[in-house]
Amino acid sequence: MARKNWLLTGTPGIGKTTVVQRTLNLLPPAWRVIGFFTEEVREHGERVGFQIVTLDGQRAWLARKGMASPYQIGRYGVDTDAIARVIVPTLQRALQEADLIVVDEIAKMELCHPAFAEVVWACLDSPRPVLGAIQQSRLSFLDKVRQRSDVEIVTVTRENRDALPHQLAATLTALVGRG
């Protein structure tokens, strides 16, 4: 089976999200690209949490220091309602309308809501290519994703991160078949 799902991995802060964003900038402007990013939020130089940012401009807190939540990842409380309200419908729409689905990232925080794993699996199963990032952690769902024959895992390093956007854009353009 051809690999149509491209997931970046690597150490935190290596530039996975930047590679995804730069790749999107190299794709044909007519493409319908739908999905989301997880963006680190800093105040006074200190990380205070993470926001969900969809490609159509929606924003919501994914996790924040001091947030009351039954789901705590490190110092961050996870807002599972935001996952259900923003990420899940965005990816469901992508399944219907997108030329390319962006999932940045598949990680422990997002997996606090069970619907996230379901919709990500549906995206990976769909005929539409997925570009995203996957956390290096050893979690059951992450391991299942990594074992899929249609998933290519690309480790981002300081040495390859500048060349990757051009390589990924060329691969995705060939997969989608229209420029």
From TrEMBL:
Gene Ontology terms, MF aspect: ATP binding; ribonucleoside triphosphate phosphatase activity
Domain AAA+ ATPase, first and last residues per copy: 2-155
Gene3D superfamilies: P-loop containing nucleotide triphosphate hydrolases (3.40.50.300)
Superkingdom of the source species: Bacteria
Record flagged with keyword Membrane: no
EC number assigned by the record: 3.6.1.15
One Pfam match: NTPase_1
Keyword Nucleotide-binding on entry: yes
Enzyme class: hydrolase
Keyword line: ATP-binding, Hydrolase, Nucleotide-binding
InterPro entries: AAA+_ATPase (IPR003593), Nuc-triphosphatase_THEP1 (IPR004948), P-loop_NTPase (IPR027417)
Name of the protein this chain belongs to: Nucleoside-triphosphatase THEP1
Organism of origin: Candidatus Fervidibacter japonicus
